[in-house]
Fold:
Amino acid sequence: MRNRREFLKTSGTFALGSLVLPGMAKSFFAMPPAGVQLFTLFSTFDQDVPGSLQKIAAIGYKNIESAFSMKGGFYGMKPKEFAAAVKNSGMAWQSHHVLGTPFKMPPNAKPMTGADGKPMTIPPMKNLKDNMQELIDGVAEAGIPYLVCANISLADADEVKSSTEILAKTGEACKKAGLTFCYHNHTHEFEKVGDLVPLDYMLSQVSPDLLKSELDLGWATVAGMDPVALFKKYPGRFPLWHVKDIDKATKKPVEIGAGYVDFKPIFAASETAGMKYYFVEQDGAPKPIENLTTSFANLKNMLA
Structure:
């Protein structure tokens, strides 16, 4: 039999829960802790992987999503080595980004620069078209639940279709390996390519059990999309999010709270989306740790 203290504690929790509006219940009681997409620290992370992880954890982030490393592999480590480094920092490694097709610099794009301000020489990058099983095996060995295609070639309608076939094959292989496969958007996935809207085509042509979406809230907003409307159109299809704010004038990523993305209604619809994890990302962050600290504090206040 429960004692009086246990009864009051349980009853109080139930009473408090009953006062919360249904749409906000997840925000108060079941919202996962904030994570970081490590591309935010692209210019500095490789220089001190354990130290960088400790700094991220000290801010209060609990989950990480990895991406391309100039050192190759998982920031110069084997899958289980990097998994151990993340665990030692007190965080959990939930997801990893890979390319769908061979990397091409966008037309007129400026070369990426390192912490010293000098242009980086980008080493060869593996991709799902050419290295699918190798990439899946690495993520499976790491013991993390999600593999994400960061982008894929979508230059014309034929390429949209062939790229979707790559995603379908990858989804099948991920399912066999016990992984959930997602596709991450920028803006062009919402722009018509011939008669096709790439993200709609992908999600309609590939079974939900083989392909889900990691919705980048910032780039979706820039593309003129309403994330909540997307959640309603494809319920349960968005287990991962990139929480990214955008400056309205420049259309460049900024700290959470410094841009024009309206996060409150998006998070209120997290259950419809099927969201499991979200990762703060600021592409090209000028002072990554400072920027992530500000974003964490602002996001915490928004969700309070």
Summary: Residues 1-29 have pLDDT under 50 and may be disordered. Strands lie at 35-37, 63-66, 92-98, 146-149, 180-184, 212-216, 240-243, 245-246, 253-254, 277-280.
